[in-house]
Amino acid sequence: MSWFPQAALNAGVRKREVFGWAMYDFANSGYTTVVLTAVFNAYFVGVVAQGASWATLAWTLCIAVSSAITMLTVPALGAHADQRGAKKRVLAWTTAGCVLATLALAACGRGDVALAAVAVIVSNTFYSYGEALNAAFLPELARREAIGRVSGWGWSFGYFGGMLSLGLSLAYVLWAQGQGQEAAQFVPVTMLITAGVYAAASVATFVLLKERAQPQPQPAGPAGQAGAGQALARLARTGRQAAHYRDFAWLLACSTAYQAGIAVVVALAAVYAEQALGFQQTDTMALVFAVNIASAAGAFLFGYWQDRSGHKRTLGATLVGWLVMTLLAYAATGPGLFWAAAVLAGLCMGSSQSAGRALAGALAPADRLAEFFGLWTFATRLAAILGPLTYGLVTWLTAGNHRLAILSTAVFFVAGLLLLRPIDVARGVRAAGGSSAD
Questions:
Q1: Which of 27, 37, 69, 436 has a CA that sits 20 to 30 A from residue 160's CA?
Q2: CATH number for the domain including 128?
Q3: pTM for this structure?
């Protein structure tokens, strides 16, 4: 049996179009891998902020601010893209914004805290917009009964993009260190590499992916006012219909909880490895490279299990795995156990991220995909505030106790499991299918 059957796709969707869609995951994964997880976060704390006592908290505040901006704007942006039938066009603008802001990170050196903070906030905001808009294409491509595996195809393929950016960066760092260069000299080049891969790989998305949404009737009046007014009106309608979409609402609450824990791992894994365990930057990059391999495997294989066993059961299993990972990371006093925790984190990250996106796609009404995925991104960005800020505050209040900070992350995964229980997937799918008649 083929691992990539045509039967998993909706009528009229060709495999090359799914490849184009997955290439966006490939393109933007380098940003999270190099900028947020493996390189620039530790560089910001140790070099840009010069190891100050407030450096970790400052980094988490940058993530929090970008997430707050996304929360306040992405649902309306999604509603606007639905109205105009313009998901692809808006995705192109957000991609350009993230690439340009990542290039700006290359100009950040010792003491350039303000410049680095602005560039991180802008780049992460545009990255989040792109993630939401690309996810909104998923239900248009995959049949409902195959949405898990198709989501897994994209997410697993995306990790190879992260490995490409990280691998090129690691190769350059090793060469630069052999030349006697310091982090302030070679880290900026890794930002150029990351931006270049993002821009080049995303071209396939804009060439191959089709815009199937049709523009919706616009009311009389100035176009800009009409678009903004309609976007807000659609969001207000969604709020009034919260009881009808209660399973999607429970998913948002669940996602906020467990994604807060994942956000800690994404934003602070390298910081923890270097500050608590004494890892060097090349050690951390090699560790994250291995995590990406595990994440790719987890996203791909769990996608098939998800379609067989159900979205809810698969997501619950991955959250249990995250709890075990947290305890292993807390107990680690050397590289061995921490490597085991990191590989487990990779397996759980790929599977939980893919499962969450697929479940959101299953519960989202077909005529309001960008809007509902905007709401899903609202939840994940709220999580990106709660998780890293909690970690940063714990380290600040405990005079730099990173072990206690990583242990506190377990609370988010426990909350995610509890909030997953009320979700009735079949009921939520029925509610989504009835949207067009509302």
A1: 69
A2: 1.20.1250.20
A3: 0.75
User: Which pair of tokens denotes residue 200?
Assistant: 């080049």
Which range marks the domain in which residue 67 is found? 14-213+223-437
Nearest C-alpha neighbor of 161 from the set 209, 120, 207, 205: 205
pLDDT per residue rounded down to tens, the chain (438 residues)? 456 677 778 788 888 998 999 999 999 999 998 998 888 988 998 899 988 878 888 998 898 899 889 888 887 888 778 777 888 999 999 999 999 999 999 999 999 999 999 999 999 999 999 988 988 888 888 887 777 778 777 777 888 898 899 899 989 999 999 999 998 999 999 999 999 999 999 999 999 999 887 776 655 444 444 444 555 565 566 556 556 788 988 998 999 999 998 888 776 777 777 777 778 778 887 888 888 788 777 777 766 676 777 778 888 988 999 999 989 988 888 788 888 888 888 888 877 877 787 788 888 887 777 778 777 777 887 888 888 888 888 888 887 788 888 888 899 999 999 999 999 988 888 888 744 333
Report CA dihedral (101, 107, 111, 116) to the nearest 10 degrees: 0
264 within domain boundaries: yes
Per the domain annotation, does 8 fall within a domain?
no
The verdict on residue 5 lying in a domain is no
- In whole angstroms, what is the distance from residue 64 CA to residue 126 CA? 14
Query: Measured between alpha carbons, how far is 351 from 385 in angstroms, rounded to an integer?
Result: 22
Q: Identify which of 365, 358, 361 has the alpha carbon closest to the alpha carbon of residue 82.
A: 365
Kindly state whether residue 2 falls inside one of the protein's structural domains.
no
